[in-house]
Design a protein that fits this description.
Layout (H helix, E strand, L loop, with lengths): L3 E4 L2 E4 L10 H5 L2 E9 L2 E2 L2 H14 L8 H15 L4 E8 L16 E8 L5 H6 L1 E7 L14 H12 L4 E5 L5 E4 L3 E5 L4 E4 L10 H10 L5 E4 L4 H5 L3 E6 L3 E8 L2 E2 L7 H19 L2
Amino acid sequence: MSRIAYVNGRYQPHRAAAVHIEDRGYQFADGVYEVVPVQRGKLIDEDLHLDRLEFSLGELEIAAPMERRALKLVLREVLRRNGIDRGILYMQVTRGVAPRDHKFPVMARPALVITAKRLKPVPAKYLEEGVGVITLPDLRWKRCDIKTIALLPNVLGKQRAAEEGAYEAWQVDPDGNVTEGTSTNAWIVTKDRKIVTRPLGHEILPGVTRRALLELLQATDFTLEERSFTLDEALAAAEAFLTSSSVYLLPITRIDGRKVGNGKPGEFSKRLRQLYLDHAERQATAA
């Protein structure tokens, strides 16, 4: 089946889909995006993602391209036309097309692009052995809570991780605290069995998988702390893991080449991954 994209009101073959060269996303990274996981053909945590999309648009003063009910219909049509069972749906909204000028254009209409693609299952090796992360200084702008398409520092960090044989790069602020990964949220489990993740603020993206997991934890006997943690604390932790919409949760067993805990995926990481998998499966099989 050929992939189909939605571009500004039209469903087109993916290979032919395009936007104007003066789209402000292309020229200024003046736009936002969302990535929604798809399981059994269903969008997982859809409304949480759409809530975040609306927040990002509001912070950049970009009008919504359509109201939520209509957008949901388009999302489902994109999934249907692409026959996606397990994968991700990507949507991007920019301020639109206008002659190049830094200030907001007066007449431009928001541009909407939606694509979908299948994903391979998470490699068994990642779950059996965990993944590695490297650390680097956080060079991003001061509004990381907005899911903007301006991702160059993240791209450079992810490339650096790949070159060093790691899955992800954790970014570290000037105070020595871990903020987040280049495309994931960061977590640790302390030796006294407390789950720790950085609180929301302008320094990190409010991850949807992060939020859903926090809500799931409220109904368990796990002890949770939303606070900053240092790189040294992470290196001394019993466990570490990451969360994202594309992989849900992966155990981290190496930081900068040093073992986390005993160097193997830990009890908490396994249990929390299953907790989220069960949550996603309930949504995927709901009527």
